[in-house]
Amino acid sequence: MEIINFAEQNSLLCQYLSEMRDVKVQKDPMRFRRNLERMGQIMAYEISKTLHYRTEDIQTPLAVSKSPVLDDKVVLATIFRAGVPFHHGFLSYFDNAENAFVSAYRKLKEKDDSLEVLIEYLASPRLDGKTLILCDPMLATGASMDLSYRALLTKGTPARIHVVSVIASQAAVDYIAEHFPQDRTTVWVGAIDPEINERSYIVPGLGDAGDLAFGIKE
User: Fold this and answer.
1) Residue 52: CB partners within 8 Å, gap ≥ 6?
2) Which residues pair with residue 66 across a beta bridge?
3) CB-CB neighbours of 202 under 10 Å
4) E-strand spans in the chain?
């Protein structure tokens, strides 16, 4: 399994991520959403370099040009709700991609104050033989991503899987490496942070991406 950590290279993605972490900049939810979208666009472009292409004859006004065009059938899958602007960034580059949506949420267990992840909604095309790009801005424990992937497998087995997050904890990256197919999965992250706290928030992280993008939920 290959792990791509964008924090190990200098790019505008690092600038956008630094703004998303900044408590002063976080006061502007429109800017937070826009930066999520722009990070999705940059990551979509980088992922596009790893996909398969075929050559087609394209008729111009003057002659025929032999041009590479995308050959993979791409499905963009997103975990609600913070993933929506992130997803939009990917979709603005993968124009013809099919789309899948998963609702996964963390529920606090009253007995021991632990958290469990529940899936309550899934909408997806068939995935057999396709390239699945599964994106969620925050990869804290890896449990939500894994459960979402298992739910998506009810729609078929993808040929390739790209797991994409803005920020991941090291524990979550290790979890994905253990639970996803080693030979068909690539993990793309804006940064890998060292730890998670007792409430499963990434530290230093950036807080609750859903709340910062769309407002505090009850």
Assistant:
1) 70, 71, 72
2) 57
3) 27
4) 2-5, 53-59, 64-70, 74-80, 98-108, 115-123, 131-135, 138-139, 160-169, 185-193, 195-196, 202-203
Q: Residues 96-122: pLDDT tens digits?
A: 999 999 987 666 555 655 556 677 889
Helix spans in 25-169 (H): 29-48, 83-91, 143-152
**DSSP H or E segment with residue 11:** none
- CA pseudo-torsion sign 152, 130, 79, 184: positive
Give, in degrees to the nearest 5, the angle at Cα 89 between 84 and 91.
90
Q: How far apart are CA 74 and CA 82, in angstroms?
A: 21
**217 residue type, one letter:** K
pTM for the model stands at: 0.92
